[in-house]
Design a protein that fits this description.
Elements lengths: L16 H62 L1 E2 L9 E2 L1 H9 L10 E7 L7 H10 L5 E4 L1 H20 L3 E4 L6 H4 L7 H18 L4 E2 L2 E2 L12 H9 L3 E2 L4 E2 L10 H12 L4 E7 L5 H16 L3 E2 L1 E2 L1
Parallel strand pairs: 1-6, 2-12, 3-4, 3-10, 3-11, 4-5, 7-8, 9-10
This protein binds zinc ion (ZN).
Protein name: Peptidoglycan/xylan/chitin deacetylase, PgdA/CDA1 family
Organism: Romboutsia lituseburensis DSM 797
GO molecular function: hydrolase activity, acting on carbon-nitrogen (but not peptide) bonds; metal ion binding
Length: 313
């Protein structure tokens, strides 16, 4: 046995080309499947990643939308239409009043309401006294201001508009220029001129009161009833939920010969008599000192006769 080699291990396999072939094929298959497996894993991860990105994008979009909604709600709370937030209790739907005035219906289900209205302000001479009297009597009014007069009075006039608003009165638009020839050439409405003129005052009010202020109430210089071609304005107001307000009583401080305070008060009472809903026209512009003097008596009349004081907004 000396020449016999001791074989500790397995008998050395004879290399079989057939087997090599199968092994190679198997190995390749394993590698192939392995690669494929890795590929599948890789694409699974990519998918998950993409899904996560999408989810994040969705969450971000939702966050932006919620933020936008919150901001809009915040802006809406700041928005003030005609009166400040604390004075809403005194305000009355101007559209209803407008409708009633148009149809000459001055009833109000047995409840008496009066709207004190002052046109053509603010003035630095008369408006302060009017505001003082309103405050002393704890009643509110509606001021139909003109942009031109606010500008004429400068900062003090601006401060009076703001004061009137802050004290719970309604601020409404009475045009910028008050110029009949520009607003109603040939006594017929020019809507473009009219809207441009009213927008100018709206801009002033936004600057003076608040960028969140707007009013849907206006009074046509000279009165809606005085001009031709007003149907296009009515259509515009209708579309924009706005109200044009004339009047059904007056102290006649801009009519006929100049009256003293007691004559003005008498005229106010006479024209208001028998009406449950009264919209009384007065003026707080320059030269209307007698109106300021007559106001306590006029307020007393409406109080004594059981009227509630409201503002137009
Ligand atoms: Zn006027």
């Amino acid at each position: 046995m000396a020449n016999q080699k001791i074989n500790f291990g397995k008998k050395k396999k004879k290399l079989n080309p057939k087997k090599i072939g199968i092994t190679v094929v198997a190995a390749l298959l394993v590698i192939f499947l392995g690669v494929k497996g890795v590929g599948a894993t890789t694409s699974y991860i990519a998918e998950k990643k993409e899904e996560k990105i999408l989810q994040e994008k969705r969450a971000e979009a939702e966050r932006i939308a919620a933020e936008k909604k919150r901001k809009e709600e915040e802006e809406a709370k700041k928005r003030m239409v005609g009166v400040n937030h604390d004075a809403k209790q005194y305000s009355y739907d101007a559209l209803k009043v407008s409708e009633k005035l148009k149809t000459y219906d001055y009833t109000n289900n047995g409840e008496k309401i009066v709207f004190l209205t002052f046109d053509d302000g603010s003035s630095t001479t008369v408006t302060p006294q009017i505001l003082d009297t309103l405050k002393q009597n704890n009643v509110k009014a509606t001021f139909f201001v003109t942009g031109q007069n606010i500008e004429r009075g400068g900062k003090p006039a601006e401060a009076l508009v703001k004061r009137a608003f802050d004290e719970g009165n309604a601020i409404a638009n009475h045009s910028y220029s008050h110029d009949y020839k520009y607003l109603y050439p040939g006594r017929t409405l020019n809507l473009d001129n009219f809207l441009a003129d009213f927008n100018k005052t709206d801009e002033i009010l936004k600057r003076v009161i608040s960028p969140y202020f707007s009013t849907r109430v206006l009074r046509c210089p000279g009165g809606h009833m005085s001009w031709k071609g007003m149907d296009t304005l009515d259509a515009y107001l209708n579309e924009n939920n706005m109200a044009s307000i004339d009047w059904n009583a007056l102290n006649a401080d801009a009519e006929g010969r100049k009256k003293n305070a007691s004559q003005l008060a008498e005229h106010a009472k006479k024209t208001a008599e028998g009406k449950e809903m009264v919209v009384i026209l007065m003026h707080d512009t320059y030269g209307k000192e007698e109106t300021a003097k007559a106001l306590p008596e006029i307020i007393k009349y409406f109080k004594d006769n059981g009227y509630e004081f409201k503002t137009l907004a």
